[in-house]
Amino acid sequence: MMDAHQLIVCRCEEVSLAELLETAEAYQCSARELKLRTRAGMGCCGGRTCRMLVDQVIEQATGHSPSHTIPLGYQPPVRPISFQTLGGRNR
Amino acid sequence: MIDALIIGAGPAGLSAAIACAKQGLSVRIVDEFYRAGGRLLGQLHQEPNGTWWNGMEEAARLDREARAAGVEIACGVSVFNVVPSSSGWIASTTEGEIETSLLLIATGASETAVPVPGWTLPGVMSIGAAQVMTNVQRVRVGERGVIIGVNILSVAIARELQLAGIQIDRMILPPVSTVTGKAGFPEAVMRSLLRVAHLAPSPLIRWGSQLMKSSWMQRLGVSLYPSQGFSMWDIPIQLRTAALEIVGTNQVEGVRIARVAPDGQPIPGSEQIIPADFVCIAGGLSPLAELAAIAGCPFAYVPSLGGHVPIHNDRMQTPLPGLFVAGNITGVESAKVAMAQGIVAGLSMADAHGALADSAELENAIRQVGIVRQRATIQFHPDIDEGRATVGQLALASTGK
């Protein structure tokens, strides 16, 4: 049987719930700091699966409910694209 | 340079395109999927009055109307950046840059993941993925499945899978944990489920919903809840059972479940493994805000609308010049509400362009959104009106600066 805390939250970077909780508890930090410390949300999908979960871990660990500002910022490109596309040479 | 670019060819985007093009604007829609319709494509459910809502047909109708009105629809195109320009907006897409004077972001909502131990095994998918595979791709997701997460969306999709001849063994809750929110608490789940009780095929459930208006009745309801749960369309819905782990060596082989107390804690000695070859995880929806965020739009955190939504007024204008939003990006509601909002956004864009023939049409469209919302078969959240009012006040405050 698997320990529930060993479950993977960020699949791209293979960050477990335990690692997120321990880091959030230890540093009482923002979602952004948690992301930078664990790399959760920094994988190739751009945090499209775990972004909300990282926010939830922070809410639980620090007791801060979310403000009107989006906790984890977005940066372009918001989709995985080729360097060719990024350079403006399509197809 | 076009007059209006619309991102998202779902119910909101298509409705906006039609309304806008009919006022004489040049309109282009881009969408990531290879065909237009957005989440409409997967929808198939029976309304309480007995008629069927066929999303596939609705999507085809809107697509035809939009093309007839002169809208250019480009599918299979992703937008990865939007920036303001001196004359409007520039969208960076996988097909190059598009310059437009007006921009509508109608990107809908995305599913919220609910991690359950074993969720990385092949054969585990989100409930929305199962819906698309079944109703759009016509691919069988498996022979016998378990749905983890009981909410309005998952109950509706369970029925769709069943109509396609796929066996749903049961619907159960996720385990209580940091990352499963309220989805693991029987009482909270029951409360949200009661809002769809009028859709239930069984009169027992309908009576139950009348009895359970008070919270102490709900607590009692959860503790007296039959151990085998109740069934909708013969699909067992078990609010006192949770998935502890999805098991399998190379793919899903089953789910380890346990009975849970009314507080969601597993009851020792009640564990068993049930066989399954696929698992759907249903965590609900949250507005897909990424493009509005990089555009620089201010946001409001409104839980009843599904999380962070771009601030906008009743004309679907954001505080940024030439930037509009419509549909589920503004709050998770039904496709019909999204369509009504789309019409408002389309007319509003025509107005911003100085091309709106009759301003009464826009006023009527705004009223229509409220009417459609009141008549909605499925209310995703009991406090939607309150949430909408909050966003409206923030929009007023943002223009007052």
From TrEMBL, chain B:
SUPFAM superfamilies: FAD/NAD(P)-binding domain
Cofactor(s) for this UniProt protein: FAD
Gene3D superfamilies cross-referenced by the UniProt entry: FAD/NAD(P)-binding domain
InterPro entries: FAD/NAD-bd_sf (IPR036188), FAD/NAD-binding_dom (IPR023753), Metab_Enz_Cyan_OpOx_G3PDH (IPR051691), MnmG_N (IPR040131)
TM regions (residue ranges): none
Pfam families: GIDA, Pyr_redox_2
Limits of the MnmG N-terminal domain: 315-350
Top-level taxonomic group: Bacteria
Domain FAD/NAD(P)-binding stretches: 3-166
Keywords linked to the UniProt accession: FAD, Flavoprotein, Oxidoreductase
PANTHER family from the UniProt entry: ANAEROBIC GLYCEROL-3-PHOSPHATE DEHYDROGENASE SUBUNIT B
Annotated protein name in UniProt: FAD-dependent oxidoreductase
Natural source organism: Brevibacillus choshinensis
